[in-house]
Amino acid sequence: MLTLYDYLDSGNGYKCRLLLAQRGITYTYVECNIMQGETRTPQFLEKNPNGRIPALQIDDGPVLAESNAILCWLADGTDFWPSERLAKAQVLQWLFFEQYSHEPYVATPRFILRHLGRDHPRMAELPERLKKGRDALQVMESHLQKQDFFVSNRYTIADIALYAYTHRAHEADLDLTPYPAVRAWLTRVAAQPGHVKMLPGD
Amino acid sequence: MLTLYDYLDSGNGYKCRLLLAQRGITYTYVECNIMQGETRTPQFLEKNPNGRIPALQIDDGPVLAESNAILCWLADGTDFWPSERLAKAQVLQWLFFEQYSHEPYVATPRFILRHLGRDHPRMAELPERLKKGRDALQVMESHLQKQDFFVSNRYTIADIALYAYTHRAHEADLDLTPYPAVRAWLTRVAAQPGHVKMLPGD
């Protein structure tokens, strides 16, 4: 049995929940309130010394951290992560793009706005972060003008990883109107078999 | 034949050069001066729309971006990236850790100090970045106190990815004295067969 340590409002956690649902895998869900320091307790740091959710514990044994590594583990041997050498690496290329060039500039502004609030000093980070967020969306837009999905023209974990925070971009004050190919792709991803929404109220 | 678009002072590029050397693969090296905008020209953006080095062109065909995805492509099917499902994902866990929790806090301060200079306004970012850099080094230290290498107790691309900027930490004003296990691991990595240094003057 798998145990997912997660926080419901986390897009990184949602990546894992979405793939677990689409693979039809049952698991134990443990909510960790990151706003109350529950991922920095000694007990949690024993599971993930980097103090972050999501973390996936496998059969009461090893704990795997990093949302995109969890996606790879869950997708290994399935069509969600092609096994052909170049396609496999191209999926990883987009997963690293997501963590380095997208997440800090889409997810972090969303976090500041939703969890810290518009009076918080970290609001000063928003203009620069959102500029880079628009750069990331433009890279996605150019790519999706030429194909329906990120790799091999079919739905993979590259789409899952990029969908997670892109479909919440409005909560980061990012307007998707200038990115029609991204918006069409969001609709295609949401129409995949077994798709589940991120939050109960969605 | 492979073509590596790179910048000699880049640790991300060095990861690829190191593995190419250790695998004994010959390739064409194309230096792109990031300080003169050579990765933002229309010609380069056709190769990597995200405008970054390193980028690896495969037989005049597709171009793979993201240093850690290039490592995976180069290591696929070799002992540098174990094929066993959990170990494979654990390697990826450390590669994502490197890009999200280490590179922005070790490589970026180094870039500011070496390429922008101590009079640059971005120096204001250093205290917060270096604090998180020390957090990343502490996560590595705790892990390496229990094992010689990051995954499966043998040298893999997880070690290559983390070695690249950690062995330049002094150039980022990060003192490795408090991290003896990290320092011992740096020595072990540098002693691997086929190891090459990053810069000609090293």
UniProtKB/TrEMBL annotation, chains A, B:
| Location of the GST N-terminal domain | 1-82
Return the InterPro entries for the record: Glutathione-S-Trfase_C-like (IPR010987), Glutathione-S-Trfase_C_sf (IPR036282), Glutathione_S-Trfase (IPR040079), Glutathione_S-Trfase_N (IPR004045), GST_C (IPR004046), Thioredoxin-like_sf (IPR036249)
Q: Which CDD domains does the annotation name?
A: GST_N_4
| Domain GST C-terminal: start-end pairs | 84-202
Q: Which family does it belong to?
A: Belongs to the GST superfamily.
Tell me what this protein is called.
Answer: Glutathione S-transferase family protein
* Species name: Ferrovibrio xuzhouensis
